[in-house]
Design goal:
With 461 residues, the protein is mainly beta. It is 0% helix and 71% strand.
Length: 461
Amino acid sequence: MRNILLASAAFIALSTGVAMADTNDAYILQIGEANGATQDQSGTSNKASAFQLGGANISSQTQTGANGNADVIQLGVSNTATQTQAGSMNNAVAVQVGKGNSATQTQMKGSSGNTAASLQLGENNTVTQTQGAEATGSITTKTYLFGRVIGSNTVPTSIAVPSVASAAVAVQAGEYNAATQSQFGVANLAGSLQVGASNSVTQTQGTMKPDSSTIFLGARGTGIEITTAGQIPAPAFASAALAFQMGEDNNAGQTQSGTLQNALSVQAGYGNTVTQSQTGHILEGGNSATAIQLGYQNMASQSQTGSGNNGMALQFGWDNTSSQTQSGSSNEASILQAGYDNTATQTQSGQYNAASAAQFGWSNTATQTQSGSSGEASILQAGYDNTATQTQSGQYNTASAAQFGWDNTATQVQHGASGDAKVLQVGWDNTATQTQKAGGTGNVAKALQFGGGNTATQTQK
């Protein structure tokens, strides 16, 4: 181990490592006061460099793998950078300009060919990047004699879960921004850009699922009970998570497992929140989720657990809420909201369904549920306090609702095949309810209302 603390300008270049190290290179350049640099190399063919300009900056670099590159550049005061490389052929770069910034980069055992890069401009920003994971658990053995426990022993377990050829990039400009990126799997990309104050991004590529099982070897209360408890890795492959935030107090959470998942979050304003969750099978096509929010305190939630689904949410204004849940395959869901306090909810559990909702104004509500296949549902609302609900559980259904004014209500329910229901309401206090059930085919229901206080109810069974 080599620890070097310099209070004045100095340059140290060592081309050979210390004990247990082979052909490692370490470089340190410090200009200023009370800077601290620690480099520990026990692997082979690693390179570590640290450049510090300012005061009270701290860098720590640990390399126990092979062919790793770790670089730290600190310009300012009281910045902290920690780099740990235990795999092979990994690259880590941390650049800090300002005051009180913190960067932690960890490339774990078994991981290879990864890149972790962070750029921090400002004050008190935090970046945490982890490539690779550890699945932990335990094996508990209990010995029974005629139903009584006469012995018990627990052994902890740990399995390295690698990250291969993945990249994590975090850029922060401002203050009190936080970015957390975790990756395991192959060829994943996580990127975040934060400009402003107190923004938060969490990107997780590869998840752990809890699992446990118990077996008993013996009979009549005498024998051995073995209980295993731990985590089952669900890696991400060739997936991309991108988050861009400008403003204050914006939050983005992106979680991916499976293959070819794509998540994009763009937020500008104050207090906006995006949550994106994508889970797919390794051998199936991926999902795509896009959320763009401009304004204040908007919330967008997107959950995809099938394959080939596409979800898009665009929100402009404040206090708008959108929720999209897709658990089937090849479904399309889109939401556009502009105004104040609008709510749109879309749920799809079938396949080849399409749902679209556009709302302009305030306090409008749109709810679309599709559980069949090849159905289409669309809602357009402009005004105040409109409510539209569409439910389709059959096949080849089409439902359309357009409302202009205020206090309009449209409800369409279809439980059959090849049904068609359309509503257009212009004015105020209009109510239209259309129901088609019992698996009938070829049903068509249309309601057209202009004016105020109109009510239309159509039921076909």
